[in-house]
Specification:
The chain is α/β, with parallel strands linked by helices. The chain has a single domain, classed as DHBP synthase (Alpha-Beta Complex), CATH 3.90.870. The chain is built from seven helices and ten strands. Strands 7-1-2-6-3-5-4-8-9-10 form a ten-stranded mixed sheet, sandwiched between helices. Helix 7 links the parallel strand 9 and strand 10. Helix 1 crosses helix 5. It starts with 12 loop residues before the first helix and ends with a strand.
Amino acid sequence: MTNLAVSKSPLTPSDIVACLRTGGVVLLPTDTVFGLAVMPTKAEGVDRLYALKARPRAKALPIMLANATQVAELGVIMSPAIEQALNCPFVPGALTIAAPIDPRNCPDWLQGREEVAFRIPNSALLLDVLTQIGPLLVTSANLAGAPTPSTAPGVLEQLTGRPDLVVEGKTGADVASTLVNCSYSPAVIERIGAVSVAELSQWLAVQHD
Protein backbone atom coordinates (compact mmCIF):
# COMPACT_ATOMS: atom_id res chain seq x y z
CA MET A 1 0.00 0.00 0.00
CA THR A 2 1.01 3.60 -0.61
CA ASN A 3 0.50 5.71 2.45
CA LEU A 4 -2.03 8.50 1.97
CA ALA A 5 -1.95 11.92 3.55
CA VAL A 6 -4.64 13.18 5.90
CA SER A 7 -7.53 14.20 3.68
CA LYS A 8 -8.35 17.90 3.47
CA SER A 9 -11.91 17.07 2.38
CA PRO A 10 -14.32 14.70 4.13
CA LEU A 11 -13.77 11.05 3.30
CA THR A 12 -16.80 8.92 2.53
CA PRO A 13 -17.48 5.41 3.83
CA SER A 14 -16.81 4.17 0.30
CA ASP A 15 -13.30 5.71 0.40
CA ILE A 16 -12.59 3.86 3.63
CA VAL A 17 -14.01 0.58 2.30
CA ALA A 18 -11.90 0.85 -0.86
CA CYS A 19 -8.72 1.23 1.20
CA LEU A 20 -9.60 -1.63 3.53
CA ARG A 21 -10.38 -3.98 0.63
CA THR A 22 -6.87 -3.52 -0.74
CA GLY A 23 -5.36 -4.56 2.61
CA GLY A 24 -4.88 -1.04 3.94
CA VAL A 25 -4.79 0.02 7.57
CA VAL A 26 -7.13 2.94 8.34
CA LEU A 27 -6.86 5.37 11.23
CA LEU A 28 -10.29 6.75 12.07
CA PRO A 29 -12.34 8.25 14.91
CA THR A 30 -14.75 5.94 16.71
CA ASP A 31 -17.47 6.53 19.27
CA THR A 32 -14.79 5.98 21.93
CA VAL A 33 -11.15 6.70 21.02
CA PHE A 34 -9.26 6.75 17.70
CA GLY A 35 -8.94 3.29 16.20
CA LEU A 36 -6.87 1.39 13.66
CA ALA A 37 -8.95 -0.80 11.37
CA VAL A 38 -8.10 -3.60 8.94
CA MET A 39 -9.93 -6.41 7.16
CA PRO A 40 -9.31 -9.68 9.05
CA THR A 41 -8.81 -11.58 5.78
CA LYS A 42 -5.90 -9.35 4.68
CA ALA A 43 -2.89 -10.97 6.37
CA GLU A 44 -0.41 -8.30 5.28
CA GLY A 45 -2.64 -5.55 6.63
CA VAL A 46 -3.08 -7.37 9.93
CA ASP A 47 0.70 -7.76 10.21
CA ARG A 48 1.17 -4.02 9.59
CA LEU A 49 -1.44 -3.11 12.20
CA TYR A 50 0.40 -5.15 14.83
CA ALA A 51 3.67 -3.51 13.80
CA LEU A 52 2.23 0.03 13.93
CA LYS A 53 1.21 -0.52 17.55
CA ALA A 54 4.20 -2.72 18.49
CA ARG A 55 1.51 -5.05 19.85
CA PRO A 56 2.51 -8.62 20.82
CA ARG A 57 1.07 -11.13 18.35
CA ALA A 58 -0.13 -13.26 21.25
CA LYS A 59 -2.74 -10.59 22.02
CA ALA A 60 -5.73 -11.07 19.71
CA LEU A 61 -7.36 -8.04 18.12
CA PRO A 62 -10.95 -7.06 18.94
CA ILE A 63 -13.66 -7.06 16.29
CA MET A 64 -16.21 -4.42 15.27
CA LEU A 65 -19.53 -5.46 13.78
CA ALA A 66 -22.57 -3.74 12.29
CA ASN A 67 -25.35 -5.84 13.82
CA ALA A 68 -26.43 -9.04 15.56
CA THR A 69 -26.48 -10.95 12.27
CA GLN A 70 -22.74 -10.42 11.92
CA VAL A 71 -22.32 -11.61 15.53
CA ALA A 72 -23.92 -14.93 14.60
CA GLU A 73 -21.66 -15.21 11.56
CA LEU A 74 -18.62 -15.21 13.88
CA GLY A 75 -19.77 -18.52 15.32
CA VAL A 76 -20.49 -17.02 18.75
CA ILE A 77 -22.02 -19.55 21.14
CA MET A 78 -24.99 -17.63 22.45
CA SER A 79 -25.93 -17.65 26.11
CA PRO A 80 -28.44 -15.70 28.23
CA ALA A 81 -25.61 -13.39 29.38
CA ILE A 82 -24.57 -12.59 25.80
CA GLU A 83 -28.17 -11.97 24.79
CA GLN A 84 -28.64 -9.66 27.78
CA ALA A 85 -25.46 -7.78 26.92
CA LEU A 86 -26.49 -7.37 23.28
CA ASN A 87 -29.88 -6.02 24.33
CA CYS A 88 -28.65 -3.54 26.92
CA PRO A 89 -28.64 0.24 26.24
CA PHE A 90 -24.86 0.28 25.66
CA VAL A 91 -25.16 -1.71 22.42
CA PRO A 92 -24.57 -0.17 19.99
CA GLY A 93 -22.03 1.75 21.98
CA ALA A 94 -19.02 1.48 24.23
CA LEU A 95 -19.44 -2.10 25.41
CA THR A 96 -17.11 -4.83 24.14
CA ILE A 97 -18.35 -8.39 24.69
CA ALA A 98 -16.02 -11.39 24.91
CA ALA A 99 -17.71 -14.67 24.03
CA PRO A 100 -16.84 -18.28 23.20
CA ILE A 101 -16.99 -19.39 19.57
CA ASP A 102 -17.75 -22.68 17.89
CA PRO A 103 -14.79 -23.63 15.63
CA ARG A 104 -17.20 -25.53 13.36
CA ASN A 105 -19.17 -22.37 12.58
CA CYS A 106 -16.60 -19.58 12.68
CA PRO A 107 -14.88 -18.03 9.63
CA ASP A 108 -11.41 -19.22 8.61
CA TRP A 109 -9.71 -16.12 10.03
CA LEU A 110 -10.92 -17.05 13.52
CA GLN A 111 -9.69 -20.65 13.42
CA GLY A 112 -7.55 -21.45 16.45
CA ARG A 113 -9.31 -18.98 18.74
CA GLU A 114 -11.60 -20.15 21.53
CA GLU A 115 -13.25 -16.77 22.11
CA VAL A 116 -13.61 -13.38 20.48
CA ALA A 117 -14.14 -9.84 21.74
CA PHE A 118 -16.55 -7.82 19.63
CA ARG A 119 -18.36 -4.50 19.71
CA ILE A 120 -21.15 -2.81 17.73
CA PRO A 121 -20.18 0.89 17.69
CA ASN A 122 -22.57 3.81 18.02
CA SER A 123 -21.10 5.64 15.03
CA ALA A 124 -22.92 6.30 11.76
CA LEU A 125 -19.61 6.31 9.84
CA LEU A 126 -18.41 3.00 11.26
CA LEU A 127 -21.78 1.30 10.94
CA ASP A 128 -21.94 2.32 7.27
CA VAL A 129 -18.45 0.90 6.66
CA LEU A 130 -19.17 -2.29 8.61
CA THR A 131 -22.45 -2.84 6.76
CA GLN A 132 -20.64 -2.56 3.43
CA ILE A 133 -17.56 -4.64 4.24
CA GLY A 134 -18.43 -6.93 7.16
CA PRO A 135 -16.53 -7.44 10.43
CA LEU A 136 -13.28 -5.56 10.92
CA LEU A 137 -10.39 -5.85 13.33
CA VAL A 138 -10.36 -2.49 15.12
CA THR A 139 -8.06 -1.64 18.00
CA SER A 140 -7.18 1.56 19.83
CA ALA A 141 -4.73 3.75 17.89
CA ASN A 142 -1.78 3.81 20.25
CA LEU A 143 1.47 2.08 20.99
CA ALA A 144 0.83 -1.01 23.08
CA GLY A 145 0.48 0.04 26.71
CA ALA A 146 0.41 3.79 25.97
CA PRO A 147 -2.55 6.18 26.24
CA THR A 148 -4.49 6.80 23.02
CA PRO A 149 -3.95 10.37 21.74
CA SER A 150 -7.10 12.43 21.23
CA THR A 151 -6.18 13.70 17.74
CA ALA A 152 -5.09 12.04 14.51
CA PRO A 153 -1.78 14.00 14.39
CA GLY A 154 -1.08 12.91 17.95
CA VAL A 155 -1.66 9.28 16.99
CA LEU A 156 0.66 9.59 14.00
CA GLU A 157 3.45 10.94 16.21
CA GLN A 158 3.15 7.90 18.49
CA LEU A 159 2.84 5.00 16.04
CA THR A 160 5.89 3.25 14.58
CA GLY A 161 4.78 4.05 11.03
CA ARG A 162 1.94 5.56 9.05
CA PRO A 163 -1.46 4.02 8.29
CA ASP A 164 -2.58 3.89 4.66
CA LEU A 165 -5.53 6.20 5.20
CA VAL A 166 -6.09 8.80 7.91
CA VAL A 167 -9.62 9.97 8.65
CA GLU A 168 -9.81 13.18 10.65
CA GLY A 169 -12.68 13.75 13.03
CA LYS A 170 -13.81 13.99 16.61
CA THR A 171 -13.99 10.89 18.76
CA GLY A 172 -16.98 10.14 20.94
CA ALA A 173 -15.05 9.78 24.21
CA ASP A 174 -11.56 9.96 25.69
CA VAL A 175 -11.64 6.42 27.11
CA ALA A 176 -11.92 2.98 25.52
CA SER A 177 -14.93 0.71 25.74
CA THR A 178 -15.73 -1.41 28.77
CA LEU A 179 -14.90 -5.09 28.24
CA VAL A 180 -17.16 -7.75 29.74
CA ASN A 181 -16.33 -11.44 29.33
CA CYS A 182 -19.53 -13.44 28.96
CA SER A 183 -17.67 -16.74 28.78
CA TYR A 184 -18.08 -16.82 32.56
CA SER A 185 -21.15 -16.98 34.77
CA PRO A 186 -21.62 -14.40 36.08
CA ALA A 187 -19.92 -12.33 33.41
CA VAL A 188 -16.58 -10.76 34.37
CA ILE A 189 -15.72 -7.11 33.71
CA GLU A 190 -12.12 -7.29 32.48
CA ARG A 191 -11.69 -3.60 31.64
CA ILE A 192 -13.58 -0.61 32.94
CA GLY A 193 -14.01 2.05 30.28
CA ALA A 194 -16.80 4.29 29.09
CA VAL A 195 -19.50 2.14 30.75
CA SER A 196 -19.19 1.99 34.53
CA VAL A 197 -19.61 -1.12 36.69
CA ALA A 198 -22.75 0.41 38.24
CA GLU A 199 -24.29 1.15 34.85
CA LEU A 200 -23.64 -2.31 33.46
CA SER A 201 -24.79 -4.03 36.66
CA GLN A 202 -28.28 -2.66 36.12
CA TRP A 203 -28.63 -4.80 33.00
CA LEU A 204 -26.33 -7.77 33.44
CA ALA A 205 -25.13 -9.92 36.35
CA VAL A 206 -21.40 -9.15 36.53
CA GLN A 207 -18.43 -9.53 38.82
CA HIS A 208 -15.36 -7.32 39.07
CA ASP A 209 -12.32 -7.53 41.33
